[in-house]
Amino acid sequence: ETLHTKVVILGGGVSGISAARNLTAGGVNDFMIIEARDELGGRAQNIDFADTKVELGCNWVQGLGTNPVNVLREKYGLKTAPNNGDDVVFYDENGLVNFTEAYNTFGEAYDRMSELALKRLQNGQVDISSRVGLDLAGWYPMTPLDEAIEYYNFDWEYGENPEVSSLLYGVLNDEYSYGEKIFGEGSDGDLFVLDERGFKHIFLEAANEVLKKNDPRVLLNTKVTKIAHDDQGVTIHTGTDTIIKAEYAIVTFSVGVLQHRDVQFSPRLPDWKMEGIYAFNMATYTKIFLNFPHQFWDDTQYTMYVDPDKRGYFAAWQNLNAPGFLPKKTSNNIFFVTVTQDYAYQVESMSDEEVKQEAMKVLRTMYGDDIPEATDILVPRWHSNPLFRGSYSNWPIGELDQHHTNLKAPVGRLYFAGEALSKEAYGFLQGAWFTGEETATHIMQCINSKCPKIEYYPMIYNTKTFKERKDFA
Ligand SMILES: Cc1cc2nc3c(=O)[nH]c(=O)nc-3n(C[C@H](O)[C@H](O)[C@H](O)COP(=O)(O)OP(=O)(O)OC[C@H]3O[C@@H](n4cnc5c(N)ncnc54)[C@H](O)[C@@H]3O)c2cc1C
């Protein structure tokens, strides 16, 4: 079967939904959404766990005010609780740790680092890693506690450590969503989603505003395997007999999926585009959910484990029984921990039972041997999932502005969207939302008059060429 449409949206996550809404608003109703899963929402996914529902992916509205995600939250009455990052305790192998002084020292250094980054941007100075930025701001972790504090404030947000992360774009990313310039007064805050309908609810509702029930334009359970493209249009091959021919495509697959070559492009994407795709990072952020017969941990929202040797090892714990969250019960009390980068990959390669034993070992180190054994465990595996290949993107040191422009740029009739393509809000839901909107606008310009001028860099040069370097002349 061959289906014909004007615009085919590949992927039904937040950016795909946003693109569909924008096309509709612009009068382009001849579009289709192709999605491999059995529902829309992408990385906004929740699942049954221990008589409740937990969020496998996104969990916070990050940046409030006029952030479109916050606007949808208000519109559709999503249940949330205020997030308080300072509501935290630290434990090491000897129990509770006094962390206040080091925690405040880090906070002050972090503020200095942000100021320094903004100054560098104003001066037009090159990017440096966040590790260098922290060091210049007077922070160097000397103890396991320092490392745990740094992990809590940095890696747990960006999904990667300060060594690999860009200072300038990281600070811009933070300023954009929280800094009040863009989302207005009161934007500096996070809300933790605790809605049984899931975070996805607001995005599904947003989709329902432009889609009919069982809309034939939405093909679920349809995996794209190959995208053929030329100057006449695109042909989408799927895992089934269905082929879709369109004038334009919007590819919203994660940068991890593009890097992993899960989908074949024919002809292959040009080198400048590949350079843009590979220069970006897809981080993995794995939440390990554990259920217990009773709560033995603190009432604080967060608990950090300070491992004596391994930075970030089963470190960041979250309490779903925190005041204003879920009520304490006799059967379901959820404590969950996040691992990132190498520990996330390691956990993905272990069985659930092995992960549970590791987690229990850490918990016994923190709370002693008398704590009960977890009755249930849930381990999402974002990195090995061929539909995601990670959790969200992070701007690495070495990625230039031009690389990112290339990552975003269309190739002929193939347009791209998705969180990673947002220079300002990469990693966040709002990044996905904005890029879907923007890409749809560009395609409508093509349909209605003339395509916008494409900005991309066939070659990206050093500020100083080899010719100028005497040693290589
Ligand atoms: C664990 C985790 C925690 C996060 N926490 C937060 C948070 O608290 N706050 C926040 O703002 N953001 C958070 N994020 C990031 C946020 O979820 C993403 O930025 C956003 O959902 C990305 O939307 P997208 O449309 O760009 O991509 P996606 O949601 O990945 O959409 C792409 C779609 O393409 C589909 N697809 C992939 N391959 C194929 C194929 N071959 N054929 C057909 N379909 C395919 C996928 O199934 C998916 O539905 C988190 C993400 C994760 C995973």
TrEMBL record:
Q: According to its UniProt record, which cofactors does this protein need?
A: FAD
Q: Which family does it belong to?
A: Belongs to the flavin monoamine oxidase family.
| Originating organism | Circinella minor
Instruction: Kindly provide the name given to this protein in its UniProt entry.
Output: Amine oxidase
Give the keywords, sorted. FAD, Flavoprotein, Oxidoreductase, Signal
Tree of life domain: Eukaryota
Residue intervals of the Amine oxidase domain: 14-444
Do you know which InterPro entries this protein is assigned to? Amino_oxidase (IPR002937), FAD/NAD-bd_sf (IPR036188), Flavin_amine_oxidase (IPR001613), Flavin_monoamine_oxidase (IPR050281)
List the Gene3D superfamilies hit by this protein, alphabetically.
3.90.660.10, FAD/NAD(P)-binding domain
Has the keyword Amino-acid biosynthesis been applied to this entry? no
Q: What is its EC number?
A: 1.4.3.-
Binding of FAD occurs at S15, E35, A36, V224
The UniProt entry's GO biological process terms, in alphabetical order, are:
polyamine catabolic process
- Which GO terms of the molecular function aspect are on file? oxidoreductase activity
Give the matching PANTHER family: AMINE OXIDASE (PTHR10742:SF313), FLAVIN MONOAMINE OXIDASE (PTHR10742)
Q: Which Pfam families does this one have?
A: Amino_oxidase
